[in-house]
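**Backbone geometry record:**
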Amino acid sequence: MNKRAKKAAFLAAFCYLALLGLGFGMLKTAQQTRKMLYGGKPVMAQLSHYENAANQTDYTVMLGGGEWKLRFSLPESGLAEQTAAQLPPCSLKLLLRLINYADRAACYTAEWISGR
């Protein structure tokens, strides 16, 4: 191996190890932050909903094990589906589709797991 090839190999190995160390350091820092903020409990997002008297569906998105709560309401799921179909590809369209299909996906997953 000539001198130039050795230098390139050592540089590539050094870059790989530096990025690997950075990645593990970020994971360790995230775990320590989670332990400090939430006492080691898992950080999760939960979507719950119920219908109110005005025939609207109220949604609550809880983040961080219930530390942050976002509440919003949609008239009926059909309207949200139609609105999502008319939007161009964007994050709002994906969010509306996620809200519409979350219940169906949860039921399907529960049936699939219990059927095993």
